[in-house]
Amino acid sequence: MSKDLSEIVKQIDSDIHSLSSVEIKQKYLSKNGIVTTLFKGIKDISQEERVEYGKKLNDIKNLLEENIKRRKEEDISKGTQHEIDPTAPFDVNSKVERRPKILDLKGSKHPLMQELENILDIFQRMGFDVMESKQLDDDFHMFESLNFPKGHPARDMYDTFWTQDGFVLPAHTSTMQNRALRKLGPPPIRVVLPGRCFRNEATDASHEHTFYQIEGIYVDKGISFANMLAVIKEYLEKYLETELEIKVQPSYFPFTEPDTEFVISCPFCNKKGCTTCGYTGWIELMGCGMIHPNVLKAGGIDPLEYSGFAWGVGLDRLTLIKKGIGDIRKLRDGDINFLKQF
Amino acid sequence: MKLPINSIKDFSDISIELDELLHILRSKIGEVEGYSDWSEMYKGLYIAQIVSKDDHPDADKLSVYKITIKEGEDIQVVAGDKTLEVGDKVVYVKPGNIVPLTYKTTEEFVIKAVKMRGILSNGMLCSEKELNIGVDNTKVMRLDREATVGDTFIDFFNFNDTVIEIENKALTNRGDLFGILGLVREITAAKGVQFHSPEWYTDYKMPSIEKEDLLSLKIDNQAHNLCSRYIGVVMDNITVKESPVWLKSILIKSGIRPINNIVDITNYLSILVGQPLHAFDYDKVLNKDPKKEAHITIRLAKAGESIHTLDSNLVELNSNTLVIADSTNPIAIAGVIGGLDTEIDSNTKRVILECANFDRFNIRKTSMSLGIVTDAVTRFTKSLDPNQCLPTLKHAISLIEQICEGKLSSEVVDIYPEISLPKKISLSISRVNTHLGVTLSKEEVSTILKNLEYTVHESKKEDDFLTVTAPTFRTDITIPEDIHEDIGRIYGYENIAPVFPKREVKATRRNKIVSLKSDIRNILSNSGANEIITYSFVSKNLIERSNQDPNLAYSISNAISPELSLMRTSLLTSMLSKAQENIQRNIPTFCMYEFNIAHQNTNMDRFQLPKEQWNMSLLFTTKENIFDGSAYYQTKRYLEKVLDTLAVDDIEYNLVSDSTERDLPIWISNLLETFNPKASAFIVHKESILGIVGELSGDVISNFKLPKYSGALEINLEALSKLEGKRKSTYSISKYPPITQDITFNVSSDVKYKDIEKIILDTVNRDKKIATLECIDIYAKEEGNKSITVRVTVEHEDKTLSDSEFEKIREKIVKRVNKRY
After folding, report:
1. Fold match between B2-39+162-197 and B423-491?
2. Chain-chain contact of B676 with A202 (C-beta, under 8 angstroms)
3. Chain A neighbours among B 38-57 (CB < 8 Å)?
4. Do A249 and B27 touch (CB under 8 A)?
């Protein structure tokens, strides 16, 4: 343990001129800050030197705290110092041409939200309600009510974030299925549930830990797999503004039975093969299936009387494709130069 | 899961082309990740024999070999492996062909005839690694003496095959499809042909033991709930050696490295039926056991126990870990990985073969907590049929007898207290048809299910019900809907025509928040503002820089990084950091907005879940010197534009520094210090606070390096949605021209403009008169006073007002204002 604090004092002297007060606080006084760490090391100082060392350290700490306080006050004093009249349309002594006005800038709606509005509009025209998804939920809604008992291996497919309080950040909008069934039941229930989802995965040009999904639920008497095909196809054809060939492939989700993956002919190359469809002519778009009887039961609906289907489709990929955006991270980095194109 | 196509004909009579097979797999079974034609990959490779060997004259590390693939024709090859001997059989690549390891990679390596240090090398001799069948790259691979010189490597290794890789995710509830047998069953049924499992797979009889002096094997299962079946048996007289070519071939095609005949046989059965097996060295078990007996115990690990696993790691066990132990110590982690101390090696003479069924939930827990994922884990977590343990073990025994000369030398100890019985399920044909949207007859349904080896019970033709028994290997089948899926898949989803549901003409509910957001989006995007979307995750530092309380934030226990470890407490935190970035991008003036949900960890809803409220945040900043006064006003201008367009009335703005409000909602009180209290206001409607708007606090501006002229707001959309469009008309349609005059009021500086406005309106708006007001100027010459000039326009419903009439009104107004202030 070095007892020489002069190096640190020198460092502080230069930092005070280059760093903001919050950065100073972070660097020196936070939990792992330099000064805090030195204080923790005080026990390793010899008995004789400890008192003086401690005093020196305290002086440095006080100096930093004073500096932070003074600079905060200085910063605050740079703002408006008189109490304004919040009810007035402009401040006192504002010249006519320098008063508040809506500026002639290029405004925009976020591309994701444009697509979401478009999709919700289609579903509302098709007779679906809209209910938005939660962003912090519990294990029951995210897993148990969807037929994933505790410890179920299929839970591993969802790289789920948890808060330290044990809440879950939904990894799919299906987290809303139970609520939607309970709130909108008894059937007929037709609802789309858009929302923000989270998965613990590394971010790159095509992967994000934060993304949007749109869940759909249709429950009524005598609802069939054939109905599911028709409804999803109709939505996609309206959305993509073209006729599509469709097929479904077997898949597995604990909350649907049968469970499938919905695949469409590539609308961008008419099945000729392009980068969007990976030269296969087909695009796998979403998981869908007939709602599992256990899920209906958990939602207070008698599976002997009613049946239904559900799907969950991601919004981000469609938006990237439709808007010609090459990097998914651009959607959430708030770059105005990027956003004002839309 | 890898499927070598040639394996299909080992179990089924169907003939099938690749295209049809791929179609069946994709449309009825799972997803195909890809396939590779091994006859292409191994083209131009031959079995060769070393004829002569010489040192390379100019290179110490090279040897010059003469090899032959056809009698009388020698080929000269230079190789780095100097240990080959005359007579050795090796794999030779003819010039012009690709090294298999590099096949279909970006760096395909085509062998050419080249001089190596002056000596011509007419091709190449391959290592295991270069052949893509092993990891050894230190020497040229030697083949068995029986290999026929001149054969192609493809023929020798039965690589005239195509291997299809099937995506595991789609099969994750189907343990049976993690074996070739299960896949062939489905493919056969998909072709419309009845599949018959091989006889050995359904033969549940105990094997007869011929040997007399049996070896002792005790098995004690202390954890029935985690191990529903455990079978063990000892085999003696084993010769451990390399496996025969056919066995190595199928393993390699399945992506498994051959090790020795015993291990290879257990791995082979695992890929064949999806049932993992394990082999222990019997003598090592005996010698290691403190009591020198073969006494296997299935139990949970005890505190402090650890084991050296086959991959040479020392693993600390926990009390949830199920282990296979000898009388005292663990010798394997059950269903996960074996122990190093009882490993099969070339000296092994006697083995204990284990075939068991372990609880999938516990296997998953163990695998996660110890961080070990093996093929056995993958299979056990899919749920396997305990009934297949005995047939699989017997098949392994017979292969060991054939390949390793082994002899069954103990009782077959089978601990299986609760036999898994086949499930009888009653189907309603009409429900099958409504559920799927098809019109299948009872016969058609029966045929599909029989082809999948369901037992279909007799029923009257006219009965709607059909009782079937699902085979026990179908652990995924529990309810009729599970069988509906089988019927739908095998019948073919592609044969189901889309049909719209019938529905009544009922209006949907309007989601007020969704439409409010859409309305505001229209207004703001037309007002030059840009919508942003940001992460919900922020850092502690970002919250602190925003002058908000990080202790209010939910903390992510498995965060990607410290920068993304907290849930934001207000939308403005993320917005401030995005404003900083845009200023750094040199955008001089901008207004941005976001709709989202922020969380405060003390703010719960009535279900005790985190309260979720839709808010809007907006931030305006400019580094161009274009406005006078506080940024509060410009920010409020955007808010008023929104409120006015939405026809929201009766909004008041109460200065934050004036406020005596104590019971602020938590999300508002958390925001207070983000703003300059002297230049910010609560947005209030009839006593309830909708949000806050104002100039950002000077230190926040400095923390984010924003221009001095920076304002922001955050408002509760749920409260706002209740106020939208409630405006009533106050417009008078008078035919008579209005009269306009500017009135200046000299008042103390704390008088509010709204109060003056109210006095004017209260004074004018009566007796068929109505006023419209416009603030022309607010001017303060000295401290304590200001003058407010208002342009007052008055019209009367029935007449043109005269100047004198207006003068009276003006006097009344001025008198009232002076009296008040």
Report:
1. yes
2. no
3. none
4. yes
3-state secondary structure of A2: coil
Above pLDDT 70, what percent of chain A?
Answer: 99
DSSP B168-202: GGGGTT-GGGGSHHHHHHHHHHHTT------GGGG
- Disruptive mutation site among A128, A224, A302 for chain B (greatest number of B CBs within 10 Å): A224
Q: Would you state the CATH architecture of domain B423-491?
A: 2-Layer Sandwich (3.30)
Band of pLDDT at residue B618, cut at 50, 70 and 90: very high
pLDDT above 60: residue A57 = yes
Higher pLDDT, B577 or B765: B577
Report the top-level CATH class of A111-339: alpha beta
CATH of B739-820, one of 3.30.70.380, 2.40.50.140, 3.30.70.1350, 2.40.110.10: 3.30.70.380
Which one is predicted more confidently, A237 or A277? A237
By Cβ distance, the residue of B514, B529, B541 closest to A26 is: B541
Residue ranges of the domains in chain A?
Answer: 6-77, 111-339
Report in angstroms the alpha-carbon separations of A192 from A60, A119, A176, A181, B509. 59, 10, 10, 12, 12
Confidence class for position B86, pLDDT limits 50, 70, 90? very high
Asked if B501 has any chain A CB less than 8 Å from its own CB, the reply is yes
Give the integer Cα–Cα distance in Å for B607 and B598.
18
CA distance to partner chain A, nearest, from residue B401 (Å): 37
Residue B588 in contact with partner chain A when CB distance is under 8 A: no
Cα distances (angstroms) measured from residue A87 to each of A217, B306, B637, B677, B743:
47, 73, 11, 15, 18
C-alpha of A85 from chain center: 38
A172–B contact, CB cutoff 8 A? no
| Fold assignment, B512-721 | BirA Bifunctional Protein; domain 2 (3.30.930)
Report which DSSP code applies to B609.
Answer: S
Contacts A337 to B, Cβ<8 Å: 585, 587
Please state, for a pLDDT cut of 70, what percent of chain B lies above it.
Answer: 100
The alpha carbon dihedral of A69, A72, A78, A84 has a sign of negative
Cα of B225 to nearest chain A Cα, Å: 15
Give the chain B residue nearest A69 (alpha carbons): B699
More confident call, B400 vs B135: B400
Interface test with B, best of A70, A182, A183, A336 (most B CBs within 10 A): A336
pTM score? 0.89
Nearest to A252 among B172, B501, B564 (CB): B172
Interchain pair A136, B364: CB under 8 A: no
A45 pLDDT band (50/70/90 cuts)?
confident
Specify the pLDDT at position A3. Answer: 56
Write down the ipTM of this complex: 0.91
A-chain CB neighbours of B527 within 8 Å are 102, 107
- Taking the C-alpha atoms of residue B753 and residue B773, their distance in angstroms, rounded to an integer, is 11
Assigned fold of B2-39+162-197:
Phenylalanyl-tRNA Synthetase; Chain B, domain 1 (3.30.56)
Inter-residue contact A123 to B331 (CB < 8 Å) = no
Task: Break chain B into its structural domains and give their ranges.
Answer: 2-39+162-197, 43-156, 218-415, 423-491, 512-721, 739-820
Q: What is the mean pLDDT of residues B32-36?
A: 91
pLDDT confidence band for B732 (50 / 70 / 90): low
Choice among B105-119, B164-178, B218-232, B671-685 with the minimum mean pLDDT = B164-178
Third-level CATH fold of B43-156 = OB fold (Dihydrolipoamide Acetyltransferase, E2P) (2.40.50)
Residue A276 pLDDT class (50, 70, 90 cuts):
confident
In three-state secondary structure terms, B247 is: helix
CATH topology of domain B218-415: Phenylalanyl-tRNA Synthetase; Chain B, domain 3 (3.50.40)
Quote the Cα angle for A198-A202-A206, to 5°.
Answer: 85
Closest residue, chain B, to A218 (C-alpha): B501
